[in-house]
């Protein structure tokens, strides 16, 4: 959000916010950089904001799952579009799901789904089907929805909403990035990943139970040192002489 405010203050919008365009500093991993300005646009040259105009030739610019409704309609990007894109990203990061992600090859379907989800309650219900929904993200999206095309966002208001979200989960705004996975009530990771983990756990339990029934011992993996030693012996063992190899083949 701070980066977007800085870019916007210099009369540009980014237009393609997503996880792969956020890089971390090598020396300071808590420092985030927003990269890839291939879709950046000067929305307010010489202080004059571009007018709202739909252009079919520009429809669906950006990364389809995150791009703004304006971009789907072919409107040149503005500040509200960047904040909308950031909102979709945050929802995806938290829930692992977006309502239109199963049909990304149909841009019109994605556009219509986003328009339908301008009813923020619908968006939140589909992304967070349980009772435990991040209210602050809903407030953020509601505030983005109220922005007019040329309106300058009050970035501090958006910051305060997100800070309330951190406070609600007992976190501090200390600038430290935490990429650990957590399941907070109904805020869960991707359902497909969860199913895979459950299936793997069930398979392990089934295997252990079968071994107990048959009395077969559970095979343990050899220590890493033994494995390395075995590989070393194999690599350093002298190759059989040509004559010996020939004799073996004849005997077979």
Automatic annotation (TrEMBL):
What are the EC numbers?
A: 2.7.11.1
Q: Where is this region: Disordered?
A: 183-252
- Keyword Transferase in record: yes
Where does the record place Basic residues bias? Answer: 231-252
| InterPro entries noted in UniProt | CK1_Ser-Thr_kinase, Kinase-like_dom_sf, Prot_kinase_dom, Ser/Thr_kinase_AS
Ranges of residues in domain Protein kinase: 1-163
Give the top-rank taxon of the lineage listed in the UniProt record for this protein. Answer: Eukaryota
The UniProt entry, under SUPFAM superfamilies, shows:
Protein kinase-like (PK-like)
GO molecular function annotation: ATP binding; protein serine/threonine kinase activity
The record's keywords, sorted A to Z, are: Kinase, Transferase
Q: What is this protein called?
A: non-specific serine/threonine protein kinase
